[in-house]
């Protein structure tokens, strides 16, 4: 199986602006930001393609993903953020290695995108 783009970032085969890393997660700035601050939080395992697979396969890891997103937001977005999981190609998912988009730093009021 070919490693996902995000596993290649974990392996340092691709460059990224990494803001947090521990044994279970890596977080780095999105290459094409959709908000003033846009960080991806990614479990290092690529076993789960999307958030539903993660929820059913390892609920504790999903909970930890959320608290990791909060930690990233506390450091980079005054603790206020939008958390997005695209699920499926027609919803805009392009990387099938589960990841949370953490968006903040001044979002338009009422906007969902
Ligand atoms: P998705 O569309 O699957 O929900 O999100 C994938 C995200 O990964 C996109 O926002 C895209 O800009 C970002 N992305 C894709 N390739 C790279 C890369 O090589 N480096 C970084 N930092 N982000 C990437």
UniProtKB/TrEMBL annotation:
Q: Where's the motif Histidine triad motif?
A: 97-101
GO: which molecular function terms?
A: catalytic activity
PROSITE patterns on file: HIT_2 (PS51084)
Span of the signal peptide: none
The record places the active site at 99
- Which InterPro entries does the record cross-reference, listed alphabetically? Histidine_triad_HIT, HIT-like, HIT-like_sf
Question: Entry's Pfam families?
Answer: DcpS_C
Q: Where does the record place the HIT domain? A: 5-112
This chain's protein is named Histidine triad nucleotide-binding protein
The organism is Ruicaihuangia caeni
